[in-house]
Q: What sequence folds into this?
């Protein structure tokens, strides 16, 4: 299989995973902002709605999610579809 096809398939899989990650981050940040009054008593030295902290945590989660999606996606696109279908 040519490398350009593997790259296109990999980008397709990672693009679909990125949509899920972005939606999850948006819901998570919204939930964190909504729960800020509840968690304010547990936080020391940082405001519950500190934009820098929220951005750092969201960025870290995005990097971890991208790494978690890349390894299985890379292995999946290396498989020959005919071999995978014959094993079923």
A:
């Amino acid at each position: 299989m040519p490398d350009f096809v593997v790259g296109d398939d990999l980008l397709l899989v990672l693009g679909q995973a990125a949509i899920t990650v972005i939606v999850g981050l948006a819901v998570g940040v919204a939930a964190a902002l909504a729960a800020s009054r509840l968690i304010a008593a547990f936080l020391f030295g940082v405001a519950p709605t500190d934009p820098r902290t929220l951005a750092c945590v969201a960025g870290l989660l995005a990097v971890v999610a991208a790494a978690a999606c890349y390894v299985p996606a890379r292995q999946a696109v290396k498989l020959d579809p005919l071999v995978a279908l014959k094993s079923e």
Notes: Residues 3-87 form one domain.
